[in-house]
Amino acid sequence: MESQPPQVAVLMTCRDRRASTLAALDALAAQTGLPAGTRVRVHLVDAGSRDGTAEAVRRAHPGVQVAEAGPDVYWSHGMRLASRNSRAAGLPEPTHQLWLGVGVRLRAGALAELLATARRFDDAAIVVGAVARAGVTVRSGRSGPPALALVEPTGAPERCATYDGDVVLVPWAVRERVGDIDKVFRHGMGDHDHGLRARRAGVAAYVAPRTVGEWAGGGSGRPASSEPGIGVREALRRVASEAERPVWPWAVYCVRHAGVRAPGLIVAPYVLAALRAGRTRGRGHRGASS
Questions:
Q1: Please, are residues 221 and 142 in contact by the beta-carbon 8 Å criterion?
Q2: Which CATH number fits domain 7-215: 2.30.130.10, 3.40.50.300, 3.40.50.970, 3.90.550.10?
Q3: Order of strands across the sheet with 213-215?
Q4: For strand 39-47 and strand 65-69, is the pairing parallel, antiparallel, or unpaired?
Q5: C-alpha–C-alpha distance, residues 103 and 218, integer Å
Q6: Could you tell me the sign of the dihedral formed by the alpha carbons of 203, 209, 212, 217, in that order?
Q7: How many alpha carbons lie under 13 Å from residue 209 in its C-beta half-sphere?
Q8: N or C: which end of the chain has fewer CB within 10 A?
Q9: In this structure, are residues 277 and 231 in contact, taking their beta carbons and an 8 Å threshold?
Q10: Rounded Cα gap, residues 158 and 142, in angstroms
Q11: How far is Cα 151 from Cα 149, in angstroms, rounded to an integer?
């Protein structure tokens, strides 16, 4: 009996990334080598873009389901909404979900390779795509805590403990077992938590044999807590923001995955930010008075 052709629900979320989002969708639409009958349906959550992203996507890619949300929706929350929308879209039911970052330009055969790798494991494992910039891997699977080092593609599937959420193929049976990104995470950490929860549930994750695309994304665009010259209060405000380590999600993440090291890890980012700000502010004052 032949298996059902892949029905891939692609989950994406963006804010004020019109050019990047369109380029990512162009690369997705140009995929080659897919099994006969493959259907790809994109579910994009536009989180309060002011640059016309939603309208531009509807014009250039009318088959994409665009849902508009408010600017208080960050990446993890947006991906949960996209997953909900994919499940509510009706038949045919997806066979896979593909998490796709708007900063990723997939190479032409990337989706076919991800699907083929999943088939090697009877669609019972998560497959992660490594993404490079100028030949250097910048997004991929990750080794186990505490290091979470990038796992490089080697020409064969490589086991990983968790993953960055930029290119992640989740077979539907696995999604039903593990669920979506946890709602406690609004922005960061949700992808790493998902991978570690999958491992705990007995679901393996593998990095695909070859790099699947190029990274064209940038940073968050927000000033970081490590910026020299800011005061301790500002450093703490930034490190506790959604862009870095919001207190409650970070505490949940540490308690779930750090074991006896959790108490120290919970306070570490805030202590380090305060100490760093105090040192750099002190050096600035000494320099000004010399």
A1: no
A2: 3.90.550.10
A3: 104-106, 213-215, 131-133, 136-139
A4: parallel
A5: 7
A6: positive
A7: 10
A8: N
A9: yes
A10: 10
A11: 6
- The mean predicted confidence, pLDDT, of the chain is 91
pLDDT digits (tens, 9 = 90+) for 30-72: 999 999 999 999 999 999 999 999 999 999 999 999 999 999 9
Nearest to 212 by CA among 123, 120, 138: 138
Confidence of residue 21 (pLDDT cuts 50, 70, 90): very high
Name which of 25-39, 188-202, 238-252 the model is least confident about.
238-252
Q: How far apart are CA 245 and CA 241, in angstroms?
A: 6
Choice among 38-42, 106-110, 238-242, 252-256 with the minimum mean pLDDT: 238-242
User: What predicted TM-score, i.e. pTM, was given to this entire model?
Assistant: 0.90
Chain Cα centroid distance, residue 280: 32
Of 163, 193, 178, nearest to 254 by C-alpha is 193
DSSP 211-257: --EEE-----SSPPTT-TT--HHHHHHHHTSTTS--HHHHHHHHHHH
* Of 233, 10, 23, 194, the residue nearest 115 (C-alpha): 10
